[in-house]
Design a protein that fits this description.
8 helices, mainly alpha, globular, single chain, 146 residues
Length: 146
C-alpha cells in the first residue's frame, strides 16, 4: 500500500508534475536507466502491480482465458474481466502497439514463463500452468505473440 498525502493536488499542479515525470522517463536512454528509475520511484508492490497489468494486457491479446490469466498472475477473474473490457474499448492502444514488436512480446512472455515456473509455484500439482506454457511455446514457434 502506498503512503502519500490524502490532500489532493490542484489539477493544474498535478498536470505540471505529471508532465515533468513523463519528460524524466522520456530522457532515459538505456534499459538500466529506466529500471533504476522505476526501482527508486516505485515500491516492489507498485512495480508488481504495474508488471501484472502489462502482463494481463499481453496475455489477453495472446488469447489466454480469463481463468488462466487469473491463476498465472494471482489476480481475480473479475480483475481480468475488467481489463478485458477496457482492452475491448481500445484503452490500451499505445501499450498494444509496443507489444506488437516481437522482441518486446517475446521478452514479456519469457518473463511470464519465468514467473509461472519460479516466482509463483503451483498450488495444486506440478503442471498447473501447463496450458499457459503450451500457448507460450506455440506462440514462440510461430514467432507471433499477439
Amino acid at each position: 500500500m502506498t503512503h502519500i498525502s490524502k490532500e489532493p493536488l490542484a489539477n493544474d499542479v498535478w498536470e505540471k508534475i505529471w508532465a515533468q515525470c513523463i519528460n524524466a522517463f522520456a530522457q532515459q536512454k538505456t534499459h538500466k536507466e529506466i529500471e533504476d528509475s522505476l526501482t527508486v520511484l516505485f515500491t516492489k508492490s507498485e512495480r508488481t502491480v504495474l508488471a501484472k497489468r502489462v502482463s494481463i494486457v499481453l496475455m489477453l491479446r495472446g488469447g489466454y482465458s480469463t481463468r488462466t490469466i487469473a491463476e498465472a498472475l494471482h489476480v481475480s477473474t473479475n480483475t481480468v474481466s475488467r481489463w478485458r473490457d477496457r482492452l475491448d474499448v481500445g484503452e490500451f492502444r499505445v501499450i498494444e502497439r509496443h507489444l506488437r514488436n516481437p522482441g518486446t512480446a517475446q521478452r514479456l512472455l519469457a518473463t511470464i514463463e519465468a514467473l509461472l515456473y519460479a516466482s509463483m509455484p503451483p498450488i495444486a500439482g506440478r503442471n498447473r500452468f501447463g496450458a499457459a506454457m503450451k500457448k507460450i511455446e506455440k506462440a514462440r514457434e510461430r514467432g507471433s505473440y499477439l
